[in-house]
Amino acid sequence: MAVETITNKKVLMKGNYAIANAAVMSGCQCYFGYPITPQSEIGEFMSGKMQELGRGYVSAESELAAINMVMGACSTGVKAMTSSSSCAVSLMQEALSYACSDELPVVLVSVMRGGPGLGNIYPSQGDYIQSTRGGGNGDYRTLVLAPSTVQECFDLTQKAFYLAHKYKNPTILLADGLLGQMMEPLEFKEYPYPEVDNSSWCLTGAKGRDGRIIRSYAPLADNQCKFLDRLFAKYKLIEENETEWEEQNTKDADILLVSFGSTARNVRTAAKICREKGLKVGTLRPITLFPFPNKRLQELAQSVKKIISVEVNMGQMVDDIRLAVNGKVPVELINKGVGTPPSPEEIVSRIEELI
Amino acid sequence: MATQVFKVPDTFRKDFKYTFCPGCDHGVAIRLVAEVLEELGLQENAIIAAAIGCSVTIYDFLNIDALEAPHGRAIAEATGIKRARPDKFVFTYQGDGDFASIGLAESIHAALRGEKISAICINNTTYGMTGGQLGPTTMLGQVTTTSPTGRNVEYYGYPIKIAEHIALCDGTAFSARVSLDSVANIKKAKQAIKKAFEVQLKGLGFGFVEILSGCPTNWRMTPEQSHEHVRNEMSAIFKPGIYKDITAEIK
Fold first, then answer.
1. According to the CATH classification, is domain A10-198+232-239 in 3.40.50.970?
2. Among A259, A342, B13, B194, which residue's Cβ finds the most Cβ atoms within 10 Å?
3. Dihedrals φ, ψ of B2, to 5°?
4. Which residue of A lies nearest to B115 if distances are taken between CA atoms?
5. Across residues A204-219, what is the average pLDDT?
């Protein structure tokens, strides 16, 4: 069994192991999971590590069970997570809706593969909409963090635990098969965030107080309206406080390339080639997909002439960019359906076709 | 001098309101759970994973910590609670549809893992809250809103005998079926619930009680008729008894 352990501070490591190690170092007390390629290393690592540390681990009977076990663990205030991929994350959508309503700090690592349906195990960004909109019922949002390097897989896993607990809201780390399977230098870091005090709401037994009920059943419409208003006030606060992105060479840019995750790596190289060719190209990489950097895109829409979204799907984030800029500038798409991201050269030639 | 002959268990919420239909056995079942929690001193340490259906309202009666699970997932949520906080007393209270239809995988696998939780399953042979549809325990010949001419094998197959199936799982410490149709059987039911709770407290494995219960509203019966139905019809198919008790084997 492939179990990598923390030996040095700086190591060469696969993204999946980076995520798993980050979870352990974040103080994740429980891991529940069901195998699926291309994220199986996470569950394999956690099975050994959690037992070694005397923490909670279950090889769940299904993804339905796994994410509900996470909800159960989270209801007691501890850090808990599951990890999965695409078609199996589909099975978790009901629970995400419940967890948003219950305000439980669920952490879900979603390592995207090709779809729809069973699809294949090649990398993909086809679950942008699944993650940012969700397939569960009702009005809810999940925080979504999108790493683009193995180091970010580590760093953003830690951040996912923090944000999930800070906002009492499910948080998704959205990686893909490329990030999960590739090796890069990685520096281990201690959990850099403060521990969130959950004692006011978590289930610990009704000692010295009345029993707490964590529920989403809301028989009265008026009460549910009030609850939804409060929930969406929280999402607004998240948008104001937690929107994160990275940008390069945007000051004088005519063309803005927007991409997230592993695709952003080749996009950055493509932008460099464009600059060498005299094209004024800048890049913006959303690190949080919800909240999305709407405001920054609105600002940049004042100065750029064209925005191009580069994605490994049939065009999903491009919709959000169009909503953000609201017709101010044309928004184009460079994409491929599934697989490794288009090469920098391919991106450059398609930019040249578009201008 | 006045003698107290009746007392609402302290494990009940002070402001609870009775919300079940007349003649429904949920009230008795919840009362028994409340009494056992009180007798075992578990109120301050218990966490319940509530299910979907009429059973969900148990958290409005019991003054204990509660997490409401999606339909069929109470056992999974209870598993998560127990693995996160092994020192807590964790149990579920579910209907037959929740436990044995949509949640059957969770139920069987928790029993196979010997998950140290307790599960109470109310078997009233129908989906009560949604208006009396055919469920996993609906008996052959039984008329429901989705078996208008009665349950036949050709279209619907056979009902599941839950307590027997759970008893087959190696991680099960206790599995019993009880009935609430008479005072004597109510006393037996309480003993079974206590046993299912105690095997968890002793760390022996999965504790399970299936409770045969009347649903007069959906059965179109009076409360009295529904108890006769439980006694004469249901108990003939779903035979009350202890199907597994590893503490008896230890003795």
1. yes
2. A259
3. -75, 140
4. A58
5. 95
In chain B, positions 100-139, which contact chain A (CB-CB < 8 Å)? 105-106, 109, 113
Phi, psi torsion values for A164, nearest 5 degrees: -55, -45
CA nearest A311: which of A353, A230, A257, A243?
A257
Write out pLDDT tens, residues A91-113.
999 999 999 999 999 999 999 99
Contact (CB, 8 A) for B47 and B66: yes
A74, A47 Cβ separation under 8 angstroms: no
Whether A243 contacts A288, CB under 8 Å: yes
Answer yes or no: do B109 and A65 touch at CB < 8 A: yes
For A96, phi and psi rounded to 5 degrees? Answer: -65, -40
- Domain range for B121 is 26-250
Which residue among A61, A65, A215 sits closest to B68, beta carbon to beta carbon? Answer: A215
Q: Please tell me the distance from the alpha carbon of residue A301 to that of residue A297, in angstroms, as a whole number.
A: 6
Q: What is the CATH number of the domain that holds B104?
A: 3.40.50.970
pTM, whole model, 2 decimals?
0.96
What are the boundaries of each domain within chain A?
10-198+232-239, 246-354
Q: Is residue B202 packed enough to be buried (19+ CB in 10 Å), middle (13-18) or exposed (0-12)?
A: middle
ipTM rounded to 2 decimals: 0.96
Say if strands A245-248 and A281-286 run parallel, antiparallel, or are unpaired.
Answer: antiparallel
Put residue A168 in one of left, alpha, beta given phi > 0 → left and psi -120 to 50 → alpha: left
Residue appearing with tokens 């999903």: A316
Cα A150 to Cα A9, A124, A167, A339, distances in angstroms: 14, 16, 25, 18
Sign of the CA dihedral running B7, B13, B19, B25? negative
Distance between CA atoms of residues B122 and B98, nearest Å: 10
Nearest Cα residue to A101 out of A272, A16, A224, A242? A224
Residue-wise pLDDT tens digits, A129-143:
999 999 999 999 999
Sort out which chain A residues have CB atoms less than 8 A from B84's CB and list them.
29-30, 56, 72-74, 76, 78, 80
**Residue A147 and residue B126: Cα distance in Å, rounded?**
48
Total domains in chain B come to: 1
pLDDT at B158: 98
Closest Cα to residue B245, out of B202, B182, B215, B211? Answer: B202
User: Tokens 């929107």 sit at which residue?
Assistant: A243
- Domains A10-198+232-239 and A246-354 in one fold: yes
**CB of B193 closer than 8 Å to CB of B104:** no
Spell out the alpha helix ranges (H) of chain A: 15-25, 40-52, 63-75, 86-90, 93-102, 128-132, 150-167, 177-181, 221-242, 263-276, 294-300, 317-325, 344-354
d(CA B161, CA B139): 10
